[in-house]
Structure formats: structure tokens, C-alpha cells
Automatic annotation (TrEMBL):
InterPro entries: Macro_dom (IPR002589), Macro_dom-like (IPR043472). This is Putative phosphatase, C-terminal domain of histone macro H2A1 like protein. Pfam families: Macro (PF01661). Residues 1-177 form the Macro domain. Transmembrane segments: none annotated. It comes from Acetomicrobium mobile (strain ATCC BAA-54 / DSM 13181 / JCM 12221 / NGA) (Anaerobaculum mobile). The lineage of its organism: Bacteria, Thermotogati, Synergistota, Synergistia, Synergistales.
Length: 181
């Protein structure tokens, strides 16, 4: 299992920990289409960053599943929160929705000239997507985006909550890197 790779000057890292402690330019929130922030990653972001993040997000919504919107970051040590909409009000998601939301979040990064961003494992909490499926969807989209776009990104960190998630993402990252070699 590997936890880091590089592609076209962009470092992709896997990290076990709390995404709200990231000190880059932005973090991604796994959002629903109305952008209210309940539990899991969204709840942790709201708790540490403040209610103003949710208020700003909800003033933008609702948005289409697969889109990503940007808000301020309140008291967090980043400039922005990018809300990647991976599910509707039914809290169900799919690999397709995760792929679209990942791409959309990366596009918002380039619009804002973001260099360092952290993602959670999109859709694995309330959306109940297995870690392996999420890892494949997110990592393939990240690699595809870096290969196809002239990006401002220099670092993409995926924060994972537990050892099982880290192992799943590490296995998938290793497989993708081996295919590219």
C-alpha cells in the first residue's frame, strides 16, 4: 500500500486524521444538494468553522447533484470550503455522483487558483458507499483531471477517518500508479 504519488507536479497524499485541521487553501465538504450541514464531515466542519459556513452554503442552494460550490471557511485554517454535492435529500449517492462532484470541486480549485486542497472520502458516511468504490471513483477522477487540465493545484490530500479507509484508498492508489508506470 502506498500513501503518496506525484503526477505532473501535483502531489496526491492519503492521510488518516481530521480534515478540519488541514492548513492548505481549501477543504472539501461532502454535501447534499440543499447544502445543510448535518453530521459526519459536514458536522465537524460546521462545529469547528462556525455556523456561518452553513448559512452561506444554504443561501446558494439548492444545487444539482454533482456540482460543487464555494463558501468562506469561518474559523478554519483554510480560505475556502468547497461543498461537493454527492447526494440529494434522500442521502443516497453513487460512484457517478462522486465522480462528478470530485471533478466539479477540482474545477472550482482552478477557478480560484487554489494550490493545496483536502478532500474527505466522499459519500462513505451518510451515502454509505464502500471505501473501495469511493477510492476508485475519486482517485481515477483526480488523476484524469491532472492529466487533462492545466491546473493550479500542487497538493491534493485525501483525509481518511480510519485504518480501513486508509488501506482501501492506499490499495487503489497503488493500482492506479502501477497502471500508469
Amino acid at each position: 500500500m502506498i500513501t503518496e504519488a506525484e503526477l505532473k507536479g501535483v502531489t496526491i497524499k492519503l492521510y488518516k486524521g481530521d480534515i478540519t485541521t488541514y492548513d492548505g487553501d481549501a477543504i472539501v465538504n461532502a454535501a447534499n444538494n440543499h447544502l445543510w450541514m448535518g453530521s459526519g464531515v459536514a458536522g465537524a466542519i460546521k462545529k469547528k468553522g462556525g455556523d456561518e459556513i452553513e448559512k452561506e452554503a444554504m443561501s446558494i442552494g439548492p444545487v444539482k447533484v454533482g456540482e460543487a460550490v464555494v463558501t468562506g471557511a469561518g474559523k478554519l485554517d483554510v480560505d475556502y470550503v468547497i461543498h461537493a454535492v454527492v447526494m440529494g435529500q434522500d442521502l443516497k449517492t453513487s460512484e457517478k455522483m462522486i465522480r462528478e462532484a470530485t471533478q466539479s470541486a477540482l474545477m472550482r480549485c482552478d477557478e480560484l487558483k487554489i494550490e493545496r486542497i483536502a478532500f474527505p472520502a466522499l459519500g462513505t458516511g451518510a451515502g454509505s458507499i464502500p471505501y473501495d468504490a469511493c477510492a476508485l471513483a475519486m482517485l481515477e477522477e483526480i488523476f484524469y483531471y491532472i492529466e487533462e487540465e492545466d491546473t493550479s493545484l500542487k497538493e491534493i490530500v485525501i483525509y481518511l477517518y480510519d485504518d480501513d479507509a486508509l488501506r482501501s484508498f492506499g490499495r487503489v492508489l497503488e493500482q492506479i500508479v502501477a497502471k500508469k508506470a
